[in-house]
């Protein structure tokens, strides 16, 4: 797993990326990945309620940010969080 932190000037934002080289996320799961209760078939036999990424998205929205899951070629996933940087009053 790799963690990358960078900045964007347009728009002014902090970008955090978590990269792995695991099996990746099935394409058919991507549209509902951040929904409450969403779980892939590979995790059906593991404990959990499917709330983790739903909570991540909710927190990002509270900060006017975004989160997205991207393929990490040749395998794996990149979770990208974009947090806008506001100007101090």
Automatic annotation (TrEMBL):
GO terms for cellular component: plasma membrane. GO terms for biological process: phosphorelay signal transduction system. GO terms for molecular function: protein histidine kinase activity. It is an enzyme of class 2 (transferase). Keywords: Kinase, Membrane, Phosphoprotein, Transferase, Transmembrane, Transmembrane helix. It catalyses: ATP + protein L-histidine = ADP + protein N-phospho-L-histidine. Residues 1-87 form the Histidine kinase domain. PROSITE patterns: HIS_KIN. The keyword Membrane applies. Its EC number is 2.7.13.3. The keyword Phosphoprotein applies. It is found in: Membrane. InterPro entries: HATPase_C_sf, HATPase_dom, His_kinase_dom, Sig_transdc_His_kin-like_C, TCS_sensor_his_kinase. CDD domains: HATPase. This is histidine kinase. It comes from bioreactor metagenome. The gene is citA.
């Amino acid at each position: 797993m790799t963690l990358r932190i960078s900045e964007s000037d347009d728009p002014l934002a902090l970008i955090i990326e978590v990269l792995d080289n695991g099996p990746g996320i099935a394409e058919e799961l991507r549209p509902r990945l951040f929904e409450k209760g969403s779980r892939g078939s590979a995790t059906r036999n593991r404990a959990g309620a499917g709330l983790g990424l739903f909570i991540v998205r909710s927190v990002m929205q509270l900060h006017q940010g975004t989160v997205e899951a991207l393929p990490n070629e040749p395998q794996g996933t990149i979770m990208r969080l974009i947090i806008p940087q506001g100007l101090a009053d």
